[in-house]
Amino acid sequence: MIHQKLHPSLWADTSTPRISVDKLNTHTRADVVIVGAGITGSRTALELAEQGLAVIVLEAQEPGWGASGRTGGQVNPLAHDIPEKICSYLGEKAGMGVVNAYAKSADEVFSLIKKHKIECDAEQNGWLRVAHCNRAVKQLESMSSAWQKVGLDINYVEGNELHRLMGTKTYDTATLTPKGGSVQPLSYTRGLCSTAMRFGARVFGHSPVQAIERKGSQWLVKTESGSVDTEWVVFCTNGYTDNVLKGLQKTIVPLVSLQSATEPLPQEIYDEILPEGHTYADTRRVIFYGRKVKDRRVVFGTLGVSADCKRGSDIKRLYSGLAETFPQLKGIELTHKWGGYIAHTPDVLPHLHEPQPGILAGLGYNGRGVAMGTVMGRVIAERILGKSAEDLEIPVTNYSNAFLRHFSDVAVKLAVPTFEIMDAFERRFT
Ligand SMILES: Cc1cc2nc3c(=O)[nH]c(=O)nc-3n(C[C@H](O)[C@H](O)[C@H](O)COP(=O)(O)OP(=O)(O)OC[C@H]3O[C@@H](n4cnc5c(N)ncnc54)[C@H](O)[C@@H]3O)c2cc1C
Questions:
Q1: 208 lines ligand 1 (CB under 6 A)
Q2: Which among 7, 96, 187, 333 is least surrounded, fewest beta carbons within 10 Å?
């Protein structure tokens, strides 16, 4: 595997310092080997190292290199479906575990940050989910009443009040989830990882795991230039999942998500947009989402076709989406543009798998992994520390192949322009 530098992004330019890690060059042993040093892997490592387990994290590049260091940094405590539907997929007990995990996920992130004093510009000012068309208004109505019933603090905001909170008249209806918020995601990921290291976890970079083999009752994990004997191997590779663990890659569809950051804005325009520091995301299939950051910039994202964010149609969508949402930003330069992979699953839910004794995999956040990757890391740690699979908040499920995997990459890429046309039609006519 070619060693890649950290992708250029606003987060790379403004993060807490990079974590210096060596490549694994020896044979060693650990209680647990974690593959991937994003939010999920780093949270798992933190929880286990804090309990005194010998933890090794093997990262193909450097901590935070994957989606965790590239996200919009929105901490969104809501699933894509209503609780009833989640329970219909997973059964009542397991479904309600997941529902409660979502509802508490933002608080879990912010209290973890507080507990370990992680420097990451954390703000819990609330999340607006805005409707892009009338059909979506009905969808928001049913989401908010269903989630209210299970105790989530979620309200409705409309008309002038929403225009004021957004700093634009583009949307007329939204739900407001006050527990939502934002972080500087690369600083957050590095903070989780360095806290795990403070508790004794050993983290190696430029050490892609190439194979795992059964060795008696244990596992042997092999990299290019080293290996580890271990009781447990945990895959936290989400949208970057490869073929090392047979069958895992087919459970998700990697989709491209894009981000951009404006040049620093004139103060009066900056003050007008999202004046109370909310984050927002709309209901389009090819979602528009954004937030403000402290050096007078707006960060804006959408879905895309090419993860390097160099394709003309992707860049055009970033500029036009930003200007459609905030007309006062028309003509503003996007100084940073970047992208990465999210992991889509057939039921739009995250999954925890235990395909063999001693192997775990947690992935499939469908674009909401800042909060749910943090939760997943804790749940994985609880499993390793002895909690029975039946009592976990996120149930252990079998692999379920992602339908879109039957199609070629080209077909998946065609979905973005197709969905874009459907979104535009709905916005105009429904
Ligand atoms: C542009 C973008 C914007 C997003 N915006 C948001 C947002 O605002 N809010 C939100 O909640 N979510 C957002 N997401 C999704 C979120 O970032 C992810 O769900 C989350 O970061 C997943 O974390 P993770 O630790 O599971 O995986 P990742 O952070 O992707 O880390 C996986 C790691 O595994 C490593 N790896 C893979 N294979 C191997 C191997 N064989 N050996 C060793 N290492 C390996 C990779 O190098 C990578 O670093 C966004 C994603 C993107 C790309």
A1: yes
A2: 333
Q: Which of 118, 15, 112 is nearest to 62 (CA)?
A: 15
Whole-number Å distance, alpha carbon 1 to ligand 1 midpoint, is 18
Helices (H), 92-212: 92-115, 134-149, 159-166, 185-198
| Structural domain range at position 372 | 10-71+186-251+347-399
CA 362, chain centre distance (Å)? 12
* Closest by CA position to 299, among listed 285, 313, 283, 279: 279
Domain match, 235 and 276 both:
no
Give the C-alpha separation, 315 to 258, whole Å. 9
Distance 185 CA to ligand 1 centre (A): 11
CA distances from 222 to 25, 216, 280, 362 (A): 11, 16, 42, 20
- How many angstroms separate the CA atoms of 388 and 372, rounded? 20
d(CA 296, CA 391): 45
**Ligand 1 centroid from CA 426, angstroms:** 31
* Mean pLDDT by groups of 10 residues along the chain of 430 residues: 75 95 97 98 98 98 98 97 96 97 98 98 98 94 96 95 98 98 98 98 98 96 98 98 96 95 98 98 95 96 94 96 97 97 95 97 98 98 97 95 69 78 80
Q: Do both 271 and 320 map to the same domain?
A: yes
pLDDT at 407: 65
CA dist., res. 108 & res. 104, Å (int) = 6
Report the nearest atom of ligand 1 relative to the CA of 281: 8
Instruction: Report which protein residue has its CA nearest ligand 1's atom 50.
Output: 71
H or E segment at 28? strand 27-35
* CB burial of residue 160 (10 Å; 0-12, 13-18, 19+): exposed
Q: How many domains does the chain have?
A: 2
What one-letter code names the amino acid at 55? V
- Per the listing, tokens 């699979």 go with 389
pLDDT at 414: 77
User: Which residue type, as a one-letter code, is found at position 251?
Assistant: T
Distance 341 CA to ligand 1 centre (A): 7
The pLDDT score that the predictor gives to residue 1 is 47
The DSSP output letter for 123 is B
Same domain flag for 259 and 334: yes
Residue 216 and residue 331 share a domain: no
Q: What is the pLDDT of residue 422?
A: 86
